[in-house]
Amino acid sequence: MVKNQFLEAMNFRHACKIFDENRKIPKDDFNYILECARLSPSSFGMEHWRLLVITNDKLKKRLKPYCWNQPQITTCSHLVVIKAIKKDLFPNSDYVKKIFFRRDLPKEKILNYLKVYENFMQDKLNSKELFCWSSKQCYIAAANMMTGAAFIKVDSCPIEGFEKEMVEEILEIDKEKEEVSLLIAFGYRVNKAPQKKRLSLDEIVEWR
Ligand SMILES: Cc1cc2nc3c(=O)[nH]c(=O)nc-3n(C[C@H](O)[C@H](O)[C@H](O)COP(=O)(O)O)c2cc1C
Question: 159 C-alpha to center of ligand 1: Å?
Answer without folding.
Answer: 7
